[in-house]
Amino acid sequence: MKKFKIIMLLMTCALFLSACGKSDSGKKSKENSSNTQLIGQTSNKYYQGVIKDGHYQTSKSRGVSVQQNDNQLNLKSFENGLLNISKSHFSTDKYIFQEGQYINTSTTEKWLGRKTKKNPEGLNPTGKDSKVPIYLQQIDEQDFMTQQNNSLKISGMTIGVGINSVYYYRKEAYGAIYQKKLTNSEIKEQGKQIGNIILQRLRKNKDLKNIPIVIALYKQAPNDSLVGGNFFAYSVNNDGANKVSSWQKMNIKNEVLPSQSSKTNNNDEDAFDNFKSQVQNFFPNLSGITAQAHYVDGKLSGMHVNITTQFYGESEIISFTQYVETQAEKYLPTGIPIDISISSTEGMQSFLSRSSSSKDFYSHVFSSY
Amino acid sequence: MKKFKIIMLLMTCALFLSACGKSDSGKKSKENSSNTQLIGQTSNKYYQGVIKDGHYQTSKSRGVSVQQNDNQLNLKSFENGLLNISKSHFSTDKYIFQEGQYINTSTTEKWLGRKTKKNPEGLNPTGKDSKVPIYLQQIDEQDFMTQQNNSLKISGMTIGVGINSVYYYRKEAYGAIYQKKLTNSEIKEQGKQIGNIILQRLRKNKDLKNIPIVIALYKQAPNDSLVGGNFFAYSVNNDGANKVSSWQKMNIKNEVLPSQSSKTNNNDEDAFDNFKSQVQNFFPNLSGITAQAHYVDGKLSGMHVNITTQFYGESEIISFTQYVETQAEKYLPTGIPIDISISSTEGMQSFLSRSSSSKDFYSHVFSSY
């Protein structure tokens, strides 16, 4: 994986960059407070990040998203999916990643609210909670930087727009929670409208006037889902475009196995069922085995398997982990990345991982001295 | 690591063994219930395990140990340490591992109790709780099997004997908990005596009459310790020896870093402190960084670092993990196995691991679809 070469390369270029951001003058600041430092990239799977004033620059809007998501799986899946979209437009070799710094907390709060007299910027429709749904549930901004004259310059941006698939509401304070399923056409329509408005607003900032801005639309999973939602469309907006000219469809599905409902692919389900029944008999009391299956264009392209056990001993977990590995190699599909984590109430006990190109699983048993 | 070769080798010998254990007659049982199957060994770091009657043969005595340990770290550390001792006497290439099947639950309970009229087998001294300490706190048995005439035969055993370093007791039911520190010479003396009696008792079983039995003595860590205790002596008893002829001293220490008290090695502490202060500044609110340092013969020989963060975003965790990797490569000692786990209240977020022979860390960020 040329990992060592990359690290060496980056070690040598992990130089301290002086004053960047607002002041583009390139003058060397004497204050430590304007120092920007790059984090060594340890694999080109990942972006390099930015340390500023001695700290990592955390996202300005993320705290809001955390509160907004009753199902935390929507949060991880949204951030993770958006990063994958970003990687196909802003290469990890060329761009430096910066957590969203343009849409700040109070802006995010306003945008996620309903449009009212007091909140004219609200991107959700005016109206009564019980009648008019909240469509926009979360926003994520990712900034892509390049080095110019010893400073970092914003050179690209990706915006994720999370639209509800189910609208949860109360008719009175502390009352029962009602839900309304939103149709796919509503979700698409609203996502595109909101994405367009966000693009227009971002273009008003002179830093963002001419950079490529990718807008990606995400359909939130219901609150009781064991897997996150999925991105369903994106648009690339170059040359200062103020309006999205076209949306590209994305065919992504995330499913939970074993599933009661209709499946994208029966063979995958069967393979998992075989694996599951082999593994489930190992211990007298194994609590559960589920998987998240990730489909792109109808093809399985990734799998996360979660196995929950009681608290067994170190040697029992070692044997179990070896057994799971042999069964995974026998039954689970090859050519896709697979993670398998084995947990008890005490936390993760061991885990296995195989990349799409690898033949063998990497396995690790967590231990203690 | 010859992993693939080993797996191939073992795949081919993962044959079904018929009737073993009590009946050595070698007759082919038709019942599925007496079928023994070997688990493929995925690395020679680990033993092959045994599946019997479709299930893994769990330990007969372990449940008792779980209840006996207020500090669960003593349990993991004890099991893990005992496995390491076993490996140096019963090679993972030659022996098959079986969870302890000879000392069963009720025997363990009796042995861990005080010696009384009703419990003549008790290995703890007769006496009042507030006056006479409980020395023996836990027992672990590990069985090492070889294949003979298509069945598995016990060919070696390791017994771990956990002796308290602090005795906790109440003067009255539900009363305050008092503690009494036990001296090292008491701990040694008691451990050796108890180990001797266990050896004698095991030799009475005809299966165990002539096999090598390794007895290892462990000093339990106090209940408030952030690291487990340590093994301090072992004896190898060959040729049906009924009495331990000599004990080998083991110089093992497990410490927590950063430490307030005296340290085994100041350089290790300094290296860790440098790493810690580099990493701690990364996020505005990083909760804590501690490490378990494992010393053998005064030399650092392993380290587990635990980093606790708030719940940060996927991209924040990726950047942090890359940063931790660069700092660990810069500051932490090489040539020893190092695990670093990064957790939030939501569980493990990412982890890094480097073996003693490896230059680079393996790193994994846990994600969700």
Gyration radius of chain A, rounded: 23 Å
Proportion of residues in β-strands of chain A: 25-35%
Spans of chain A of at least 5 consecutive residues whose pLDDT stays below 50 are: 1-33
Mean pLDDT of chain A: 87
CATH topology of the largest domain in chain A: sex pheromone staph- cam373 precursor fold
- Multimeric state: homodimer
Number of beta strands of chain A: 18
Q: H/E order of the elements of chain A?
A: HEEEEHHEHEEEEHEEEEHEEHEEE
Q: What is the total number of structural domains of chain A?
A: 2
Spatial arrangement of strands, main beta sheet of chain A: 5-6-7-10-11-12
Under CATH, the homologous superfamily of the largest domain in chain A reads: sex pheromone staph- cam373 precursor domain
Query: What does the overall shape of chain A look like?
Result: globular
Largest sheet of chain A: 6 strands, mixed
Number of continuous helical runs of chain A? 7
InterPro entries (chains A, B): CamS
Pfam family, one (chains A, B): CamS
Organism (chains A, B): Apilactobacillus xinyiensis
Keywords (chains A, B): Signal
List the helices and strands and how they pair.
The structure is a homodimer of 369-residue chains.
Chain A: H1 3-12, E1 16-17, E2 36-38, E3 50-52, E4 55-56, H2 62-68, H3 72-89, E5 96-99, H4 105-112, E6 136-148, E7 151-163, E8 166-170, E9 177-181, H5 184-203, E10 213-219, E11 230-237, E12 248-249, E13 252-257, H6 266-280, E14 286-296, E15 299-309, H7 314-331, E16 338-344, E17 347-354, E18 362-365
Parallel strand pairs in A: 7-10, 15-16
Antiparallel strand pairs in A: 1-2, 2-3, 3-4, 5-6, 6-7, 8-9, 10-11, 11-12, 13-14, 14-15, 16-17, 17-18
Helix pairs in contact in A: 6-7
